[in-house]
Design brief:
Layout lengths: L8 H6 L7 E7 L14 H12 L4 H9 L2 E6 L11 E3 L17 H20 L4 E7 L3
Parallel strand pairs: 1-2, 1-4, 2-3
Length: 140
């Protein structure tokens, strides 16, 4: 727990703290296996959903507004890059490979993507966010 550094268990039970700067981060990416027709929706739908998130039209946007939480949308490799400057670019390519034919992502690419996503979280914490909720979006 971030709040527990240097605090005893008794102090934690009685500690007063408030969450004044929460954030929801939506990480969006496409899965290469979707090109095999195994998904309920095509990868193009992910791009449309990310655009909807960025424009405030999705249910998660309504939830964030109702709660007064900041919403960040992160493109981790959707088929078509959004044309919206509010989406955080974390692209390491377009989609993953179809694991039906080859490895979906190399260990190196997986590590790079994880490092970038951790970096986004750290930047939010440095900006004063005390609670970060993560949500994944993408089509399989």
């Amino acid at each position: 727990m971030i709040f527990s550094q240097g605090m005893s268990e008794d102090e934690l039970r009685t500690a007063d703290f408030s969450i004044t700067h929460p954030c929801i981060c939506v990480f969006a990416g496409d899965y290469g296996i979707a090109s095999e027709g195994v998904s309920i929706a095509s990868s193009e739908v992910t791009s449309q959903m990310v655009t909807n998130f960025a424009q405030g039209g999705a249910a998660i946007c309504v939830l964030a507004r109702q709660l007064g939480w900041r919403l960040n949308v992160v493109d981790c490799g959707i088929l078509t890059a959004p044309h919206n400057n509010t989406v955080i670019d974390c692209r390491l390519g377009v989609s993953t490979n179809s694991f039906h034919h080859q490895v979906a992502m190399t260990q190196s690419a997986t590590g790079e993507r994880a490092d970038e996503c951790r970096s986004i979280g750290r930047r939010r914490i440095r900006a004063g966010m005390q609670l970060i909720c993560l949500w994944r979006n993408g089509h399989r």
